[in-house]
Amino acid sequence: MKLSRKAKRYDDSVLPGEFQGFEVFHRVDAELEGTLEGFLRRSQDGVQLGEVVLERHAPKKLSFAKLKNKAEALSEQVNYLKERLEIVDHDRRGMYIQLRSLPPYKDDTQIQFNEISIGKNKIVVKRIAFYRKEEVKQQVPLQLSERELERLLFDIRQAIA
Fold first, then answer.
1. CA distance linking residue 102 with residue 88, whole number of Å
2. What is the pTM (predicted TM-score) of this model?
3. Which of 69, 133, 140, 144 has a Cα-to-Cα distance from 22 of 20 to 30 A?
4. CB-based contacts of 138, cutoff 8 Å, min separation 6
5. How many helices (H) and strands (E) does the chain have?
6. Burial tier of 76 (Cβ tally within 10 Å: 0-12, 13-18, 19+)
7. For residue 99, which of 120, 71, 76 has the smallest C-alpha distance?
8. Is the CB of residue 155 less than 8 Å from the CB of residue 144?
9. Is the preceding omega at residue 103 within 30 degrees of 0, hence cis?
């Protein structure tokens, strides 16, 4: 997925999260001709999702207008996370759109938000925290119920289909 210069600079400044104890998953989706992979940890409180990547291996013809429509539809569909999603960045030539929580979660020490990056053949879902004191951005787990996880996987699959 080709990122805009702004998004690339931003992504380069996000530190990887500490996801020890998370299980890696990898599924082949024959119908979609793609793969679903990521890492998560299940507990009594639900699921902590480190990251999920859905990639379609058979390229699909897609205009930027259609990609934007899919991103807008996804932002409306994914209404079960703690914050609503809005388009914050896009790149017409690179066929890339970034959704983010607006407004994000804030407290005295940090700001956290969900981020979904949508490309022509790839979708990445993750949660990022900005720690004010250290001025550091780091990937953190996204807390979901099992039902929310299944719905999220269904919704991103529909967006890339």
1. 9
2. 0.89
3. 133
4. 14, 15, 16, 17, 128, 129, 131
5. 3, 11
6. exposed
7. 71
8. no
9. yes
